[in-house]
Design a protein that fits this description.
alpha/beta; five-stranded mixed sheet; 5 helices; 5 strands; about 35% helix; globular
Length: about 150
């Protein structure tokens, strides 16, 4: 467990990840923050919605864009419990998010520090500031527990 309190956005993302797990979805949660306030949130829901794009990050980005009435989320931060995949990293870039905070790395499916490394590609339209590891143990344990129960 973390030795200091996690910032509210990561606490909320972890709550959303727990909700996803309870619904039988892979436990990933995400929130979009602007000026310290959560303006969009999401949890994984591809199975429930029959939508392969319903990753937590995409759901949170869509909600934030609706809340702001703008597809560009300049000045906003995305807080996620897992390293984003290539699809979500692309959406983060297109939304022009200023910063990405994620808890657990994903060597298999992540595309920020692993795999495609989307933000490092010359074709990347916008590169957010990236911070990883905050809440990593909590997020990793949620994922391990979820997949352990399914084996």
């Amino acid at each position: 467990m973390t030795r200091w309190p996690l910032p509210h956005p990561m606490q909320r993302a972890l709550e959303l990840a727990r909700e996803a797990a309870a619904a039988g979805e892979v436990p990933v949660g995400a929130v979009v923050v602007k000026d310290g306030a959560v303006i969009g949130e999401g949890r994984n829901a591809p199975r429930a919605t029959n939508d392969p794009t319903a990753h937590a990050e995409i759901v949170a980005i869509r909600a934030a864009a609706l809340a702001l009435g703008n597809e560009r989320l300049e000045g906003c931060e995305l807080w996620a419990t897992l390293e984003p995949c290539a699809m979500c990293a692309g959406a983060i870039s297109h939304a022009r998010l200023a910063a990405l905070y994620y808890a657990a790395s994903d060597p298999k499916g992540g595309a920020v520090e692993h795999g495609a490394r989307v933000f490092d590609q010359p074709q990347c339209l916008h590169r957010p500031e990236v911070y990883s590891g905050m809440g990593e143990s909590e997020a990793a344990e949620l994922l391990r527990g979820f997949f352990r129960e399914r084996r």
